[in-house]
Predict the structure of Aspartyl/glutamyl-tRNA(Asn/Gln) amidotransferase subunit B.
Amino acid sequence: MFETVIGLEVHCQLNTKTKIFCSCSTSFGDKANTHVCPVCLALPGALPVLNKAAVLKAISFGTAVNATINQNSVFDRKNYFYPDLPKAYQISQFTIPIVEHGELFINVNGVEKRIGITRAHLEEDAGKNNHEDSRSLVDLNRAGTPLLEIVSEPDMRSSDEAVAYLKKLHSILRFLNISDANMQEGSFRCDVNVSIRPKGDEKLYTRVEVKNINSFKFIQKAIEYEVERQVSAWEDGKYDKEVFQETRLFDASNGTTRSMRGKEDSAEYRYFPDPDLLPVFITDEMMKDATQIPELPDQKRARYISELGIKENDADVLISTYESAKYFEDLINDNHEPKLCVTWLNVELLARLKNGATIETSPVDSSKMNQLLTRIEDKTISQKAAKDVLDYLMERDDSVDSVIEKLGLKQISDDGSILAVIDDVLNKNPDKVAEYKSGKDKLFGFFVGQVMKEGKGAFNPAKVNELLKKKI
Ligand code: ADP
Ligand code: MG
Ligand code: ZN
């Protein structure tokens, strides 16, 4: 019997406006080489200056994961050559990272587990090589973008735990608003380290690193494939030959991993402190500011349950993304009843999001939903009619009130029109009225039904009940 051991390295792009050592913009998707300057082009003599915003964001992260924040840390040069790295070294942190000894908690199948975070350090991103048919083009817009590299302890024992860790990490970054953590755009990139060992064995066996996998699903697949490969090598007596420290690539087209290169040792990078940068010193003042962090998903979940009376499952859905928690709180801040908000967000809106639409891209944003809930609560429309309004708004841009008008959904609450119908219904059914009066209470429902039917669903049911009771 074998046990899987997984440790994860995540490179997360911090969402600062400018790069980490120069004032070029970090904006994504622009024309190649338009956000460059002597520093990020590595022109001789240009000197880096540290972006304070990147440091503050790293401190917030450290705070969120209960880590030690090293108020003194150092930038080192990691030397290697690659066309997207014009300096031939990356500025990173090696000996003293800004953040160390953190933790986060995951929950898989109802079991809570602590995952250690070894360290998180600041570094600069490289540029990008774009390969065309017969040539490769280098785009340095990304060179110098601030990254926080977050390294976990080898604490995960299954692909489910690895994915739970990544999702938790992802949501912490989003709730802290320190990264877009957009996997498609590469602002949340993950390297997976996988090894196996006989169950009960405490020692760590050879790890294989699978690089840059850009979706949770692929990460799961890459781990599962890698475990299978290592286990069969062991069982076939070929473990020593086939499993060695190396970097592998995940091939999404067939769900396998293949060898990319032998794993380099840190000694090969010839790390040394960057003489162009002073050691980083974080003042107590900066610590005070940056350790004030927004409410995190776990805290929100607890508060929704205890203060707002939300069910656990519903709370889980609400905090599953930053956007849905934000949407929900927009509704709560507009003073709508919490349970009504949950129904209209978790049930009605989510069911209507189709074709990859998310809460973020939903045609009905929280301010429109606010209008809709207001009209339900002030009884202008019934909940049933509100569903028609929502259907309409998912397809066309319009205001809630104008849709209510267009679809003729306004509930009628004025006594006069309802009373007229009540009289009519009672006159048409003299025998039923007599039966009711002689004690057949159940007939009340029949009268309500008739009146509502005549009102074509536009009558406010509470009002109908009230008036009918008086009248009969
Ligand atoms: P490198 O940059 O050389 O990959 P790091 O220290 O940055 O080294 O990352 C090492 C990662 O590998 C960590 O996440 C660690 O938990 C994980 N790891 C170390 N040993 C093992 C192992 N035997 N099996 C699985 N993961 C491991
Ligand atoms: Mg690594
Ligand atoms: Zn620059």
Residues 297-407 form one domain. The chain has three domains: 2-289, 297-407, 415-471.
